[in-house]
Amino acid sequence: MSKQDFEVKKRAINIRRIRLERERAVFMKLGAKLRAYLFTGILVTAPVAITFYMAYKFIFWIDRLVNQILPPQYKFDNIFPVTIPGLGLIILVVALILVGMFAAGFLGSFFLRLGEWVVYKMPLVSTVYSLLKQVFETFFSSKTQAFKKVVMLEYPRKGIWILGFVSAELQGEIKDNLHDDMVGVFIPTTPNPTSGFLIFVPQKDVIELSMSVDEGLKYVVTGGLVEPKKKGKKVKD
Question: Has residue 32 been placed in a domain?
């Protein structure tokens, strides 16, 4: 093989190698774009799909529960030829409204007080009922709010900061035994903010944040992945 033929063959090999590298780069770029589009599609559709799926499961669970409670002659299968999703939920909401209307009246209030008096006479049942009643009144009453505001404080030692929620103003015996201006702060756990512990700290040691309680709860549940919207900084006095 002459030197000229060798150079031509070498040049052809180099051209083929460059073309293969370019084709590989194009496919890699295309694959990266497809992966980015795939993850974007998941981020867009997953929350909506999961929300609708949970709502679907909840509605049908309520329908089955209400259908089991109803007398045989009033069951959905005996009245309607086809399944109507959400019918049980509608019946439950209407029933709760009627119960609320009855309880708000004089006769309903009398029977409600009578039932509570009977329940409070039961040793173990009274404790559970009292606790559940206080929890539901706290979270569903329009006159109260479960948490007042979101704060930051150094805990469990200086230099380590933690997110907390001011639960309520101190009153009664607790306030009388605390000399400084103290506040009760609930420290939630991640990812379950319903568990945690309550501590009492001086008002001057907490930094009030501008984020809402809902945003603070989302921040705790997601472990800091969902950041709250910026509304300006609170300056500590």
Answer: no
Tokens 């974007």 belong to 40
Give CA–CA dist 211/121, Å, rounded.
44
Q: Which domain holds residue 99?
A: 87-140
* pTM > 0.70: no
- What is the C-alpha separation between 3 and 160, in angstroms, rounded? 74
- CA distance linking residue 146 with residue 184, whole number of Å: 12
Q: Which amino acid is at 63?
A: D
> Would you call 145 helix, strand, or coil by DSSP?
coil
Q: Nearest to residue 220, comparing CAs of 186, 192, 183?
A: 192
Q: Rounded to the nearest 5°, which phi and psi values hold at 210?
A: -85, -10
33: in domain: no
Q: What would the pLDDT profile of 19-42 be if each residue is shown by its tens digit?
A: 777 777 777 788 788 888 888 888
CB 197 within 8 A of CB 209: no
Q: What whole-number distance in Å separates Cα of residue 174 and Cα of residue 112? A: 32
CA distance 94 to 11: 84
